[in-house]
Design brief:
The chain is of the alpha/beta class and 156 residues long. The chain has five helices and five strands. Helix 2 (38-45) runs parallel beside helix 3.
Length: 156
């Protein structure tokens, strides 16, 4: 079985490391790619520039507060793109503000998770995320001949 491909859009190296460690501790077979801002996220998803050979993600974990292009803008671009909108996007933010939560869902987020502040809570949250998205939910199968592609629907 191929590993699940996850794109983590996170500008905080400590949070990226926590995510990586949580996947390892939970023994989830994940191919984790990390980008540091919203511009890189869209380049990755559209296979542009340095990301022309990037793995097509099964799931995007998206922080809201990012440099250059924030998570709200990224979420809007993903969910309004015919080529990308089927990719599930889980917003993972330190914000518990109801306005952020409601706006994320309004923009098409599939899930909103407030990041726990301690490692055990973070690990437990990631375990729940793993169980739901990788074992309970049915994800679109990009390996059965279809793929997300770029905005035009073609892979470069």
């Amino acid at each position: 079985m191929n590993p699940v491909s996850v794109l983590l859009v996170e500008d905080n190296p400590a949070d990226a490391d926590l995510t990586r460690e949580a996947f390892e501790i939970n023994r989830q077979d994940v191919a984790l790619s990390v980008v540091l801002d919203g511009v890189e996220a869209m380049d990755f998803l559209n296979k542009r520039g340095d990301f022309s050979e990037a793995a097509e993600p099964d799931l995007v974990l998206l922080d809201l507060n990012l440099p250059r292009k924030d998570g709200r803008q990224v979420l809007t671009e993903i969910k309004t793109s015919k080529a990308l909108r089927k990719i599930p996007v889980v917003v993972m933010s330190s914000s518990k503000d109801q306005e952020d939560i409601m706006r994320s869902y309004d923009l098409g987020a599939n899930c909103y998770i407030s990041k726990p502040v301690d490692f055990k809570g973070f690990r437990d949250t990631m375990k729940s995320l793993n169980c739901f998205w990788f074992f309970t939910a049915s994800l679109p199968d990009r390996r059965s001949g279809g793929h997300w592609g770029n905005e035009s629907g073609h892979v470069n």
